[in-house]
Amino acid sequence: MNLLAFDTSTEALSIALTGSGEPLLHAGAGGAQASASLIPAILALLERGGLVLHDLDAIVFGCGPGSFTGLRTACSVAQGLALGAGVPVLPVETLMAVAEDARSRMGARDVLAVLDARMDEVYVARYMHDGQRWLRGSPVRLAAPEAVEVPAGAILAGNAFRAYGNRLPATAAHVAAAPTAAALLRLAPALIAAGEARAADEALPLYVRDKVAQTTAEREAARAAPRQDRMTP
Q: Both 90 and 20 in a single domain?
C-alpha cells in the first residue's frame, strides 16, 4: 500500500511515505512555518520514493486536536493534493497517534494521551489497543493539567511534560510521545480496513477549543498567579 502521511499539529513537522520498501521520513519545523515548507517537502519525499501523487492509495494526516494553524494547513494540503490526484484521505486523531507512538516506544496498550494545548490546558483522551487497532475510551477534551486523572493500568504519554510536568499526575508511568507521521502510517491500514478513509472534500480538522488566544485580562491574570503563589505564606 502506497501511503503519504503528515502531521503539523505541534511545533514539529513530520512526513512519512511508504511503498514497497522501508518508510521514508522527513522532520522539520511545524506551526506557522509548516504552511510554507509542507508541500515542497512532500514533493521531495515523493521524488526520493519514486512515486507520484496518483500512485498513492491514500493521504493520511493528523486532523487534530492541535495548533489551529497547523490543523488548517494539514487539512487544506491533504484536500488539495487528494483532489488533484483522485485519491482518498484518512484523517487520524493526533492523540491516537500519540498512543501509537507510545506503543512503539514501550509496548503500551492502555494510554492516556496528552498534548500541550497552550493557554494553561492540555488535550487529553484515553486509547486502548485490542490487538488489532486502537479504540478511544474517552472523549477528546480540554483539561487543566491538575485535572488530568490517569485510569488504573494506563500510562500517560504525550508532549505536555516539559510545560506542565510538575502539574500532571506524578504517580502514573509516563513516556514522551508525539503524533509522528510514522505513527500515522502504522495506524492507517487498520483504519482504512475499518472504512475510515473518505473523499477529500469530507476531511475536516478536529477542533476541541473554539478560542484561539487568551484575552489581555486572562494573560495578565496568568502572569499574576505565580506572583500571588510566591506571596502566600
A: yes
